[in-house]
C-alpha cells in the first residue's frame, strides 16, 4: 500500500480545502487506480473515504538564463489524487513533519 501513496501535497490550496471541505491531496503512483488509492488512504490514516478524484499533472519545460549559458530542463509528470473524507473526520498531515 505504501507504494501507492508517494507523498501528501501540502500547499495553501490543499490545506484550505482540508480545513473547510475535508479534501486532501496526494501524489500517487502512475499505475494506481481510484479503488487502490481509496484503500491505501483508509489503511494509512484510518479514515472513511467518500470520493477520489485523480488527474495527471504534465511536466513543464523550464529555461534559466545565466551569465555563461542557457540551461534547459523541466519538471516531471506525476499523478495527483484529491481524496474526500467523511464529514467530521480529519487527516493530520503535519504530525510527521
Features:
single chain, 97 residues, alpha+beta, Alpha-Beta Plaits, four-stranded antiparallel beta sheet, 22% helix, 38% strand, elongated
**What is the number of beta strands?**
6
Strand content: 35-45%
**What's the order of the H and E elements?**
EHEHEEEE
Based on CA atoms alone, the radius of gyration comes out at: 16 Å
- Quick check: average pLDDT? 93
Q: Helix content range of the residues, please?
A: 10-25%
CATH superfamily, called what? RRM (RNA recognition motif) domain
What is the architecture at the second tier of CATH? 2-Layer Sandwich
Return residue spans where pLDDT drops below 50 for at least 5 consecutive residues: none
CATH-derived topology: Alpha-Beta Plaits
Class derived from helix and strand content = alpha+beta
Query: What's the CATH class label?
Result: Alpha Beta
Between the first and last Cα atoms, what is the distance in angstroms? Answer: 21 Å
How many discrete domains? Answer: 1
Strand order of the largest sheet: 1-2-6-3
In this structure, how is the largest beta sheet organized? 4 strands, antiparallel
Number of helices: 2
- The shape, in one word, is elongated
